[in-house]
Amino acid sequence: MGLRERKKLKTRAAIRRAAHRLVGAQGYETTTIEQIARAAEVSPSTVLRYFATKEDIVLDDAYEPLMEAALRARPPGEEPLESLRVVITGAVRAQLEAEPAETAQRARLLAEVPAVRARLSESLSGTSHLLARVLAERAGRAPDDLSVRVCTAAVTGALREVLLHWATTGAEEDLLTLTDEAFTTLKSGFRL
């Protein structure tokens, strides 16, 4: 990675750290982009260049490129649902290990702030499209193949529900277990 890319990653991380500190100290609604910029020692326009909205700052986890690479590395003949289970569970585990405080704060914000919940849905839609593109390539299908899109939309929809359940129940249950349960439900064909 070149100097410019490393500098961008450092700036992005500084903005996120500043936002998490401020939101933790004074609450989500009262924290402004200007305050985040000041705390990160950048301009408000720099914050908005890296993150389109305040919701994106607290939700952005930078795991999509890692998930894409991990999905591409899965065995070619593996069932798509199993590949997605391994990749998404790995991303959840990595996030819990690398950012425990931020993950807990995200859960609280998901439970409390409707704008963050709405942005989560939009973000997971983008993740679904990314995963669908990779699965379609692996299967030799068109990028907009409906079956592939339905598969990834079902998985990211299940992940959304897992995250919301976890958040609204106080983030006390094991998130990895909940994620695995969601995949088991999907695999069973929605039998209850």
Write up what this structure looks like.
This protein is mostly helical and 192 residues long. 78% of the residues lie in helices and 0% in strands. It has helices spanning 3-26, 33-40, 44-50, 54-59, 64-73, 80-98, 100-112, 114-139, 146-168, 175-187. Helix 7 crosses helix 8 and helix 7 crosses helix 9. 27% of the residues are buried. The model has no long low-confidence stretch (mean pLDDT 90). This is TetR family transcriptional regulator. Residues 32-51 bind DNA. It comes from Streptomyces coeruleoprunus.
Question: In short, what is this structure?
Answer:
With 192 residues, the chain is mainly α. The chain has 10 helices and no strands. The chain is globular, with a radius of gyration of 18 Å.
Helix-strand layout with pairing:
Elements: H1 3-26, H2 33-40, H3 44-50, H4 54-59, H5 64-73, H6 80-98, H7 100-112, H8 114-139, H9 146-168, H10 175-187
DNA-binding region: 32-51
Keywords: DNA-binding, Transcription, Transcription regulation
Pfam family, one: TetR_C_14
